[in-house]
Specification:
This protein is an alpha+beta fold and about 250 residues long. Helices cover about 20% and strands about 30% of the residues. The protein contains six helices and eleven strands. The strands form two sheets. Strands 1, 4, 6, 7, 8 and 10 form a six-stranded antiparallel sheet that branches. Strands 2-3-11-5-9 form a five-stranded antiparallel sheet. It is elongated and about 80 Å long. The two termini are about 35 Å apart. GO terms for molecular function: amyloid-beta binding; carbohydrate binding; denatured protein binding; ubiquitin protein ligase activity. InterPro entries: F-box-assoc_dom, F-box-like_dom_sf, F-box_dom, F-box_only, Galactose-bd-like_sf. This is F-box protein 2.
């Protein structure tokens, strides 16, 4: 192995699972440690798995961290579209007739703008709220990464009214420490959708960055109601909520 050109050794190491590279291969010798800590090996692994392209990704300062973040990138919100009723959603406030799950497009509604979303949550004539708390460490993001790299935490939600009723909508997200201190917070304005609207789906997003060390949990809460106080489910509709940790 000592006689192999470095480029060939990098090709061999790139075939080894990433966790073993860091926990095992890095300890073999100084040469392997330098290769595992360097950029070339991780650029190659990113290319092998399709993680690079004509995006700012190519300017990543730490390719090893970039690789692990892309590998783990997924929606951390469970049951974002109501396919499992209200499972995984806690601290539910059921104002009026409470939450309901309906099939898209619903009465006086429109289809969602992308494939794969078939249901939505809908609110009633008093405030309905629900939340989810995401444990970042349980999802595989280690403390050193969260405290030192502080990867971007991107929050998105989609909302719409039905065309025959006005409604209100609000999104509130917090980054919490281990002891549930608030490290960063985003709260949207209370968004009012008038009666006789177009029933279009609108995406609301916020990116947390440079939030400081200590983030361990994300608390996601959204809700709303109708403004006509009609019995039933004429309030704001929500679906395809997401929280992702990104490079």
């Amino acid at each position: 192995m000592e006689s192999l050109p470095e480029a060939v050794l990098i090709q061999i190491l790139a075939s080894i699972p990433a966790v073993e590279l860091v926990l095992v291969c890095r300890l073999v010798c100084c040469q392997w440690k330098n290769l595992v800590d360097g950029a070339a090996l991780w650029i190659l692994k990113c290319q092998q798995e399709g993680f690079t392209g004509a995006e700012p990704e190519e300017e990543a300062e730490n390719w090893q961290t970039f690789y692990f973040l892309r590998k783990r990138k997924r929606n951390l919100i469970k049951n974002p579209c109501g396919e499992e009723d209200l499972d995984h959603w806690g601290e539910v406030e059921n104002g009026g007739d409470g939450w309901k799950i309906e099939d898209l497009p619903g009465d006086f509604g429109k289809e969602f703008p992308s494939d794969g979303v078939h249901k939505y949550f809908v609110t009633s004539y008093e405030w309905c709220r629900k939340s989810q708390v995401i444990d970042l460490r349980a999802e595989g993001y280690w403390e050193e990464l969260l405290d030192t790299t502080q990867p971007k935490i991107v929050v998105k939600d989609w909302y719409a009214g039905r065309s025959d009723a006005g409604c209100l909508y609000q999104l509130h997200v917090k980054l919490l420490s281990e002891h549930e201190d608030i490290l960063a917070e985003y709260q949207s304005d209370t968004i009012a959708i008038p009666q006789d609207n177009a029933a279009d789906w609108t995406e609301l997003s916020h990116t947390f960055s440079d939030y400081g060390p200590g983030a361990r949990f994300v608390r996601f809460e959204h809700g709303g109601q109708d403004t006509l106080f009609w019995k039933g489910w004429y309030g704001v509709r929500m679906t395809n909520s997401s929280v992702t940790v990104e490079p």
